[in-house]
Amino acid sequence: QVQLVESGGGLVQPGGSLRLSCVASGIPFSIYEMGWYRQAPGKQRELVAGIRIVGSTMYADFVKGRFTISRDNAKNTVSLQMNRLKPEDTAVYYCYPMIYFASGENRYWGQGTQVTVSS
Fold first, then answer.
1. Are β-strands 10-12 and 113-117 bridged in parallel, bridged antiparallel, or unpaired?
2. 3-state helix, strand, coil in the chain (%, to 5)
3. Which of 44, 49, 75, 108 shows its CA 20 to 30 Å from the CA of 29?
4. Per-residue pLDDT band at 54 (split at 50, 70, 90)
5. Longest Cα pair distance anywhere in the chain, in angstroms?
């Protein structure tokens, strides 16, 4: 079955860094575009960054220049390096196949990893 397990979140001061990781199983990882999404309290889930099969990347404007997404197809992992964190980055972060998100397939969300940016 599909399993997406995120890790690496925590409490960090503004300006700090965190690296999130996600291990995927049960999907043909190497041929899926993968995304990192986040959901803050009271807000809708939103795309933060995506990475295509060949490794090209895309970022939401609010993280450009601060976050970097990467993938390791041999290990079925996708990572998100987050630098210069801001309080508004506080949210639960999830990884998910972009095609699932686009099609409204919501059965496979993992638990996510909490990121809290606060002094």
1. parallel
2. 10, 45, 45
3. 44
4. confident
5. 40
